[in-house]
Amino acid sequence: MRLLERMRKEWFMIGIVLAIAGAKLEPSIGVNGGPLKPEITVSYIAVATIFFNSGLSLKTEELTSALVHIKLHLFIQIFTLAFFPATIWLFLQLLSITPINEWLLKGLQTVGCMPPPVSSAVILTKAVGGNEAAAIFNSAFGSFLGIVITPMLLLLFLGSSSSVPFTSIFSQLFMTVVVPLIIGQIVRRYIKDWLERKKPPFGAISSSVLLMIIYTTFCDTFSNPNIDLDKFSLILILFIIFSIQLSFMLLTFLFSTRNNSGFTPADTVAIIFCSTHKSLTLGIPMLKIVFAGHEHLSLISVPLLIYHPVQILLGSVLVPTIKSWMVSRQKKPLQTREVLAALE
C-alpha cells in the first residue's frame, strides 16, 4: 500500500524514466517524420497546450498584494535571470578543460538560463511557512519574463543563432508560448469561478504533455548513431548539479539575512526557493523551439531533467531545517518586544 502511494506521488519521475526507456526501445515512433509527427504535434500543439494550461492556472489576480515588495522581486529576478546564468558561464569556462561531454556542459548553461518554476518553489515556501504571496508572484512573473529573456540568454551564451534564425525562433515562441498564455488568461477571467470550484489538475495535464515532449526528444537521440553519452560525464554532471543547487541556496541565504538586507525570515524562505529553482515545464518546450532540429538536443536537455528532481529532493529534505530556523528568528523579535514591554 505504501509503495502504491509512493508511486502515485512520484508518477512524473517514473514517467520520465519510462519515456526515456520507451524512446530507447523504439525510437522510430517519435522521430521527426515518424508516426507521432512531433514536428507538428510536439513543436506546436504540445507546447501551445502547456502554455495555454499555464495561462488558465496562473492566479494573477491574487498577486496585486505582493506588488509593493519591489526590492524582494528585484532580488529574485536579477539573481535568477542574470546572476545565475552569468555565474554558470564563468564556472563552465573552468569545466571546459575537463573531459566532461561538451553538450552536457552546454546543458548546464541552459539550466542557468531558465525561469523559476510555477509550482515547486511555491509548494516548498508554503511548506516552510514563508512568504507565499511573494513566491507566487515571482514564480508567475518570472515565467512571463522567461518567455522573452530565456531564449535571448540561450542565444547569448550558446550562440545557437548561427544555426537557427533569430526571427524564426521568436515568431514560433510568440505563436506557441505568448499567444496561448494570453488566451489562457483571458479564458480564465470568464470561467474563474468554475475553475476555483472544480480545481482541474493543471499540473498533471502539463506534466503528461511534457512526458510526450521528453519522449520524442530522446527518440531523436537514440535514432542518431553518432551520439554517445559516457557514464563518467553523467555522474560528474549529477554531482555538479547537487553542488550548484546547494551553493546557490546558501548564497541566497547569506545575501538575504545580512543586517541591512531589509528582508524578513519569511522573505528569505521565498528567496531561497524562488532564486534557485528552475522550470522544467517551461524549459523543455523552449529548448525544443530554440534548438529545433539540433542533433544534440537531448544531451543539452539532460542537465535540466536532472536538476528538476534534485531541486525538489533537496528542498524537501531541507524544509524542516529551514522551518526551525525561520521560527527561531521570528521568536527573537517577539521576545525582545516582551522584555521592553516588561521594562516599561
From TrEMBL:
<keyword id="KW-0472">Membrane</keyword>
<keyword id="KW-1003">Cell membrane</keyword>
<keyword id="KW-0769">Symport</keyword>
<dbReference type="InterPro" id="IPR016833">
    <property type="entry name" value="Put_Na-Bile_cotransptr"/>
</dbReference>
<dbReference type="GO" id="GO:0000139">
    <property type="term" value="C:Golgi membrane"/>
</dbReference>
<dbReference type="InterPro" id="IPR038770">
    <property type="entry name" value="Na+/solute_symporter_sf"/>
</dbReference>
<dbReference type="Pfam" id="PF13593">
    <property type="entry name" value="SBF_like"/>
</dbReference>
<keyword id="KW-0739">Sodium transport</keyword>
<feature type="transmembrane region" description="Helical">
    <location>
        <begin position="169"/>
        <end position="190"/>
    </location>
</feature>
<protein>
    <recommendedName>
        <fullName>Sodium/bile acid cotransporter</fullName>
    </recommendedName>
</protein>
<keyword id="KW-0333">Golgi apparatus</keyword>
<dbReference type="GO" id="GO:0006814">
    <property type="term" value="P:sodium ion transport"/>
</dbReference>
<keyword id="KW-0915">Sodium</keyword>
<feature type="transmembrane region" description="Helical">
    <location>
        <begin position="297"/>
        <end position="322"/>
    </location>
</feature>
<feature type="transmembrane region" description="Helical">
    <location>
        <begin position="103"/>
        <end position="124"/>
    </location>
</feature>
<comment type="function">
    <text>Does not show transport activity towards bile acids or steroid sulfates.</text>
</comment>
<keyword id="KW-1133">Transmembrane helix</keyword>
<feature type="transmembrane region" description="Helical">
    <location>
        <begin position="70"/>
        <end position="91"/>
    </location>
</feature>
<dbReference type="GO" id="GO:0005886">
    <property type="term" value="C:plasma membrane"/>
</dbReference>
<keyword id="KW-0813">Transport</keyword>
<keyword id="KW-0812">Transmembrane</keyword>
<comment type="similarity">
    <text>Belongs to the bile acid:sodium symporter (BASS) (TC 2.A.28) family.</text>
</comment>
<feature type="transmembrane region" description="Helical">
    <location>
        <begin position="268"/>
        <end position="291"/>
    </location>
</feature>
<feature type="transmembrane region" description="Helical">
    <location>
        <begin position="136"/>
        <end position="157"/>
    </location>
</feature>
<dbReference type="GO" id="GO:0005789">
    <property type="term" value="C:endoplasmic reticulum membrane"/>
</dbReference>
<feature type="transmembrane region" description="Helical">
    <location>
        <begin position="202"/>
        <end position="223"/>
    </location>
</feature>
<keyword id="KW-0256">Endoplasmic reticulum</keyword>
<dbReference type="GO" id="GO:0015293">
    <property type="term" value="F:symporter activity"/>
</dbReference>
<feature type="transmembrane region" description="Helical">
    <location>
        <begin position="235"/>
        <end position="256"/>
    </location>
</feature>
<feature type="transmembrane region" description="Helical">
    <location>
        <begin position="41"/>
        <end position="58"/>
    </location>
</feature>
<keyword id="KW-0406">Ion transport</keyword>
